[in-house]
Amino acid sequence: MAGPECVVRNGRWQDRMQDVLIGQGRIIELLPADPDRDLAGLTSFDARGALLLPGLIDGHTHLRDPGQEYKEDIFSGLQAAAQGGFSRILCMANTDPVNDCAAVTVHMLNKAASSHPWGPFLHPVGALSKGLAGRELAPFFELADAGCVALSNDGIPVTDNHLFRRAMEYSQGSGLLIIDHCEDPGLAAGGLVNEGLISDSLGLAGQPAIAESLQVARDILLAKYLRIPVHLAHISTRESVELIAKAKAEGVPVSAETCPHYLLWDEELVRGFSTLAKVNPPLRTRDDVHSLRQAVREGVVDILVTDHAPHADFEKDVPFAQAPNGISGLDTALSLTWSLVQDQILSAEDLIRLWSSAPASVYGFRANTFSPGDPADICIFDPQASWTVGWQTMASKGKNTPCLGQVLPGRVQALMVQGRLIYEQAREERGQ
């Protein structure tokens, strides 16, 4: 390996102060921090005692580009990713036109390379069915060759079990993992919030928890029968967790994700008819929250994702039933997860596993473990800092988050991707 070209000094990794030597985009060596070390000729960044985290990986985002760039575009979405500490993000296929052909995939990748040539890196998720209509499979091999890393019908569940089986079988040849939005559309039809006491008291149509777990069971049974992996998106209920735990104990090739909002907030948040808390699947009960917290600690739920779903302000400023589902999450995800670490619900090691090493394993990336040869994807995170979530502090065009106006703990000070400094908070604030 070539010699060092730059160094991150005075960063905290595994409770030790370290200097990180970097060359050709990779970690060369970790050394105990030493103010007298001769670093002549190296580009140097002083972490000033902040935590060193591997670059985060988000396996589930919506960047609205092409087709709805007023909500978000690839430039603003990747900027939000950088500010949030993410070195890689996967973006879903519900664009306009749908990402069900090579032309759309190439458009997305070209726009990402043009706007953020050094990262964060964008990884498109191709449509499972043409037009997301659930009637005919999309061209999996074409999408794979164009650069897609997974397949999903996103928020429009495939109800045709035969088609879904064929999709799983064809996914093997293309090398693309299937991500399934687990929802029975018949049971969930019209549901605006979790079905229960809150939906009754507000007079809103409810979506029962079984609408999710029924589809989870379908996917698990197919994965077991076919011996083909499937990934379950944004899990939100206790029953789903129990089904996944049982499947994993039996060796079924299934993985799963959830989001920070399902670990932090419950259905009580919609009592004031706040459209900022309207999301699909809906926020569930406190019991579901506790079950999911245990599931991510134990690895039953493998990874965290943001399900970043930006919307324009005017789209959420309508009666509850008319508002679109979704929370903008790239800017806030790390701070929200850190609040769980502060409350001793998760450990710092859990955070790293859920946002870096596990998603890297699920999607076939190489994670930074700060070992020689690892990619120098480094998030420099100050746990002592705080910031107020607002229009000026969020890089995403979508400001639709329940924590708008709140002070969150911890802040990304800088992000390096493959050894290049692509975001520095102090420089952004100076407007440089």
Question: Please, could you describe this protein's structure?
Answer:
The protein is α/β, with parallel strands linked by helices and 432 residues long. The protein has two domains: 6-52 and 373-397 and 405-429, Urease, subunit C, domain 1; 55-363, Metal-dependent hydrolases (TIM Barrel), CATH 3.20.20. 32% of the residues lie in helices and 23% in strands. The chain has 14 helices and 18 strands. The protein has helices spanning 74-84, 102-115, 140-146, 161-174, 185-188, 197-202, 210-226, 238-249, 260-264, 286-298, 313-316, 333-342, 348-363, 425-429; strands at 6-13, 16-23, 26-32, 43-46, 51-54, 56-61, 86-91, 121-127, 150-152, 177-180, 193-194, 206-207, 230-232, 254-258, 303-304, 378-388, 407-417, 420-424. An eight-stranded parallel sheet has the order 6-7-8-9-10-13-14-15. A four-stranded mixed sheet has the order 3-2-1-4, with no helix packed on it. A four-stranded antiparallel sheet has the order 5-16-17-18. α8 (238-249) links the parallel β13 and β14. α4 crosses α7 (210-226). The longest helix is centred in the middle third of the chain and has 17 residues, at 210-226. The radius of gyration is 21 Å and the shape is globular.
